[in-house]
C-alpha cells in the first residue's frame, strides 16, 4: 500500500516549435489522507503546472500521479479544482453553478431531492445559501470564490486542489475565506493540495509546506512540517514561537536561498 | 399597514372631506409620500421618452417638408408626400386588403417575403452555428475553411441567383437559397470567433466535471459564445432582408420585391415609395427582435 496521493518522479517539458523548456524536474511528493499540503514558490516556478498535472488538465512528460493506488492522467471530479479566478459560469445562478457539478457526479446515485439538499448543504457550508438565486456578476469576488469552493466540495473529491484560491482577493476577505477553509477542513477532513505565494497563508493553513526552487527545471527545494495544533487561531498564532519559526524558514528559503531572479 | 392607506386614499378622493372622514394623520402622511414620489418618478420618465421620441419626429417633419417643396416644383420627377398620400392611400391605410389575385395589400406581400426570409434565415442560423462551432473548435478546419469563407462572403447575393436558378429550376427555392447564402457567412464567422474565445477556465471546469461532448456543447459552448453568435445572427437577419427584395425582383411571384418591380413597370412611383417605407420598417423591427432575443438570452454572459 502506497500513500494516498503520490506524485512520482514527475517532470514536465513544454515544447514550443523547436524550443524545449523544462518546467518541472523530478518532483516526488506524497500526501496522506486528510493532510493539508501547500506548495509555495515564486511565480514561474511551475507550481500551477504541478497542480494542473495532478488535476489531469496537463499531461506529464515523465513520471505520474497515483491516487489511491490508481494512475490518474485525465481530469475528473475526484480531484476537484478551485481555480484562482473562480471560473463560475456567468450565465448560471449560484445554485445552478453548484448543481451542474452535483447533477453530473451524483446524477445516477441520488434522487432529485437528495441532490437539491446536497447543493444547498454545500452552499450553506460556505455561507452562500442566501445568494443561491444570484448570478456571479451580482456577487463580490470573495463570494464567487466561496461558490467555487462549494462547487468543488460538492463533488466529494478525494483530493481538493486549490490553485491560489485567495490570490485575487483583498486581505480582509482573504482572511475570512482562510478561516472558512480551515473550518471546513476541520469538519470534513479533506485532503487538500493548495498552491500559494503567500507565506502567512501557507503557514496558517498547512500541515506541510512544499517549497519549490525557481524555474526553469523547478524542483522541490525543501519540505517543512508545520507542527501547530488545530484548530488554529489567527490572532493567537501571531505571537506563537513555532508559527514565527516556520514563517521565518519559508521566508529564508524564498528570499535568501532562492531569490526570484528577474529576466533570468 | 395597507388597509388604512387604501381607505384614506379613497376618502381623500372625495372633494369635500367633512368631519365624517376622521383619517388618522399618520395615514395621510404615508399616503402623500408615495403619491409625491410617483409624480417625481413620472416626470423624468416622461422627459426621457420625449427626448427620445421628439427629435426623430421633428427631423421626419423637416424631411417631409423639404420633400414636399422639392416634389411639388413643376417638372419634378418624383412624387411629393401629398401626391403619394392621394395616389397610394389604400396601400398605406389598409395593409391587409384582398381585391383580387394580384391586387392585395402590402401586408400580405411582406408576409410572403418574410416567410421566405424565415426559411432561408432559419437554415442559415442552424447550419451557420454548426459550421461555426466546428471551425471554432478545430484549428485545421479553421485553416482550411476560413480563407474560402472569406472569399465566398464577399459575393453579392444576386450573383448567386442564376446559379441557384440553374440548380433548383424553380424560383421559390432559389430565392430561399439566396437568403441562406447571404446570411450564413456572418453567422459562421462570428460563431467561430465566439467558440475560439471560450475561456480556458470554462473548458477546465468542463474537463473536471467530465462533461461529454453533447453536454459541453449545450452547457458551455452555446451559452459562452452566445453574445458572438447573436452578433452574427443580427448581421445575418439584416443581410437576408436586404437580399430578399433583390431576389424577388428577379424571380417574380408574390412578395414585396416583386411588387416594387411590378410598380416600376407600370409607373406607379407612389406605390414604390410606400413599399420602401414598409421594407425599412420591417427591417428595423426584425433587427430589434433579434437584438431583444439576444439581450434576453445573453443576460448572464454579457454582464460578466
Write the SSE topology.
The complex is a heterodimer of chains A (264) and B (304).
Chain A lengths: L4 E12 L2 E13 L4 E5 L6 H9 L6 E6 L2 E3 L8 E2 L11 H13 L5 H14 L15 H14 L4 E5 L7 H18 L2 E6 L2 H7 L2 E5 L7 E6 L8 H4 L3 H17 L7
Parallel strand pairs in A: 3-8, 3-9, 6-7, 7-8
Antiparallel strand pairs in A: 1-2, 1-4, 4-5, 9-10
Helix pairs in contact in A: 2-3, 2-4, 3-4, 6-8
Chain B lengths: L1 H12 L11 H47 L9 H7 L1 H5 L12 H32 L1 H14 L4 H12 L2 H26 L3 H10 L3 H39 L4 H10 L3 H29 L1 H5 L1
Which terms would index this structure?
heterodimer; A: 264 residues; alpha/beta; six-stranded mixed sheet; four-stranded antiparallel sheet; 8 helices; 10 strands; globular; B: 304 residues; mainly alpha; 13 helices; 82% helix; disordered N terminus
Task: Report what the structure shows.
The complex is a heterodimer of chains A (264) and B (304). Chain A has helices spanning 47-55, 94-106, 112-125, 141-154, 171-188, 199-205, 234-237, 241-257, and strands at 5-16, 19-31, 36-40, 62-67, 70-72, 81-82, 159-163, 191-196, 208-212, 220-225. Chain A is of the alpha/beta class and 264 residues long. A six-stranded mixed beta sheet of chain A has the order 6-7-8-3-9-10, sandwiched between helices. A four-stranded antiparallel beta sheet of chain A has the order 2-1-4-5, with helices on one face. The radius of gyration of chain A is 19 Å and the shape is globular. The model of chain A has no long low-confidence stretch (mean pLDDT 89). Chain B is mainly alpha-helical and 304 residues long. In chain B, 82% of the residues lie in helices and 0% in strands. Chain B contains 13 helices and no strands. In chain B, α5 (106-137) packs antiparallel against α6 (139-152) and α5 (106-137) packs across α8. Chains A and B meet through α2 of A and α9, α10 and α13 of B.
Amino acid at each position: 500500500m502506497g500513500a494516498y496521493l503520490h506524485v512520482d518522479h514527475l517532470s514536465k517539458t513544454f515544447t514550443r516549435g523547436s524550443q524545449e523548456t523544462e518546467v518541472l524536474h523530478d518532483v516526488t511528493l506524497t500526501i496522506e489522507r486528510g493532510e493539508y499540503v501547500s506548495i509555495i514558490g515564486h511565480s514561474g516556478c511551475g507550481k500551477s503546472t504541478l497542480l494542473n498535472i495532478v488535476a489531469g488538465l496537463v499531461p506529464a512528460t515523465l513520471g505520474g500521479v497515483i491516487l489511491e493506488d490508481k494512475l490518474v492522467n485525465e481530469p475528473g471530479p475526484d480531484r476537484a479544482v478551485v481555480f484562482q479566478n473562480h471560473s463560475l459560469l456567468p450565465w448560471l445562478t449560484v445554485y445552478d453553478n453548484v448543481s451542474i457539478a452535483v447533477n453530473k457526479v451524483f446524477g445516477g446515485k441520488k434522487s432529485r431531492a437528495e441532490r437539491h439538499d446536497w447543493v444547498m448543504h454545500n452552499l450553506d457550508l460556505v455561507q452562500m445559501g442566501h445568494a443561491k438565486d444570484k448570478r456571479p456578476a451580482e456577487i463580490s469576488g470573495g463570494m464567487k470564490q466561496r461558490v467555487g469552493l462549494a462547487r468543488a466540495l460538492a463533488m466529494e473529491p478525494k483530493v481538493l486542489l486549490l490553485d491560489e484560491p485567495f490570490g485575487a482577493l483583498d486581505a480582509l476577505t482573504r482572511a475570512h475565506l482562510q478561516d472558512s477553509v480551515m473550518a471546513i477542513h476541520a469538519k470534513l477532513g479533506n485532503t487538500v493540495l493548495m498552491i500559494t505565494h503567500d507565506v502567512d497563508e501557507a503557514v496558517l493553513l498547512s500541515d506541510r509546506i512544499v517549497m519549490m526552487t525557481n524555474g526553469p527545471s523547478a524542483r522541490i527545494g525543501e519540505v517543512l512540517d508545520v507542527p501547530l495544533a488545530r484548530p488554529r487561531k489567527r490572532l493567537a498564532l501571531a505571537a506563537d514561537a513555532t508559527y514565527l519559526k516556520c514563517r521565518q524558514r519559508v521566508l529564508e528559503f524564498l528570499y535568501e536561498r532562492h531569490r526570484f531572479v528577474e529576466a533570468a | 399597514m395597507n388597509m388604512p392607506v387604501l381607505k384614506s386614499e379613497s376618502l381623500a378622493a372625495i372633494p369635500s372631506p367633512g368631519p365624517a372622514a376622521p383619517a388618522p394623520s399618520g395615514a395621510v402622511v404615508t399616503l402623500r409620500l408615495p403619491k409625491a414620489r410617483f409624480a417625481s418618478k413620472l416626470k423624468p420618465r416622461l422627459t426621457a421618452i420625449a427626448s427620445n421620441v421628439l427629435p426623430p419626429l421633428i427631423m421626419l417633419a423637416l424631411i417631409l417638408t423639404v420633400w414636399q417643396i422639392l416634389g411639388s416644383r413643376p417638372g419634378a420627377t418624383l412624387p411629393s408626400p401629398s401626391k403619394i398620400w392621394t395616389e397610394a392611400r389604400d396601400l398605406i391605410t389598409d395593409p391587409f386588403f384582398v381585391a383580387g389575385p394580384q391586387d392585395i395589400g402590402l401586408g400580405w406581400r411582406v408576409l410572403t417575403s418574410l416567410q421566405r426570409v424565415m426559411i432561408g434565415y432559419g437554415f442559415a442560423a442552424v447550419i451557420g452555428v454548426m459550421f461555426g462551432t466546428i471551425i471554432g473548435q478545430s484549428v485545421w478546419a479553421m485553416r482550411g475553411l476560413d480563407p474560402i469563407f472569406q472569399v465566398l462572403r464577399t459575393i453579392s447575393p444576386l450573383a448567386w441567383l442564376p446559379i441557384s436558378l440553374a440548380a433548383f429550376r424553380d424560383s421559390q427555392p432559389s430565392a430561399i437559397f439566396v437568403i441562406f447564402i447571404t446570411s450564413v457567412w456572418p453567422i459562421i464567422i462570428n460563431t467561430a470567433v465566439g467558440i475560439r474565445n471560450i475561456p480556458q477556465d470554462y473548458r477546465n471546469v468542463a474537463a473536471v466535471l467530465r462533461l461529454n461532448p453533447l453536454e459541453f456543447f449545450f452547457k458551455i459552448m452555446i451559452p459562452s459564445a452566445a453574445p458572438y453568435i447573436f452578433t452574427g445572427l443580427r448581421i445575418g437577419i439584416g443581410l437576408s432582408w436586404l437580399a430578399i427584395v433583390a431576389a424577388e425582383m428577379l424571380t417574380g411571384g408574390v412578395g414585396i420585391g416583386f411588387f416594387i418591380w411590378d410598380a416600376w413597370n407600370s409607373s406607379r412611383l407612389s406605390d414604390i415609395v410606400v413599399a420602401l417605407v414598409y421594407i425599412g420598417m420591417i427591417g428595423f423591427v426584425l433587427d430589434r427582435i433579434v437584438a431583444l432575443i439576444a439581450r434576453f438570452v445573453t443576460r448572464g454572459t454579457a454582464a460578466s
